[in-house]
Structures are given as structure tokens and as C-alpha cells.
Predict the structure.
Amino acid sequence: MIEFLVEITTAIPEGTPAEEVERRRAAEAVRAGELAATGHLARLWRPVGERRSIGVWRAADEAELREAVLGSLPMWPWMAAVVTPLEPHPNDPGTP
């Protein structure tokens, strides 16, 4: 699997009922757990004081990442993502 750095910004459409937002947020947490369990979601951070996320995601290719992985998130229709494919760096201290 290829690793991707993904920056996601969510914009909830104006006028969306609070119940719909909460329903999707709850479903999002469940789906993120499922994606972590299958190895697609490796790490996820939220910059302090911001409403966006930055994560390391894994998929066979960018099409699978966008369509099957990120596209399966309940809030995906409200999200904009910047996707950067990653490759190992020879000076990475985490590389054996």
C-alpha cells in the first residue's frame, strides 16, 4: 500500500440541521475506527485551534484512496482534501 499525507477541511453547508451534523459525526467516528482497523488510516491529527485534520492514510493508489477510502466517510460530501503521495526518505529515523 502507498502512504498519503491528507489534509482535510470540512465545511458544513449552511442550514444543515444540527441533528444531521451530529449523526454524521458519530458515523464518522465509527467509520474512522473501521478504516484504522483495516490499515487504511494510520495516523490522524488536528492542528490546535483549527477545524481541519491532517493524517497519514494508506491505499493501493490515489483513486482507491479518494473513492473507496475517503469516499466512504459519512462527512466526505462536506470535505475538501489535499492529497500528497509519500515515499520513504533515506534519512528517516524511523526506517530500520
User: Anything to note?
Assistant: The chain has two helices and four strands.
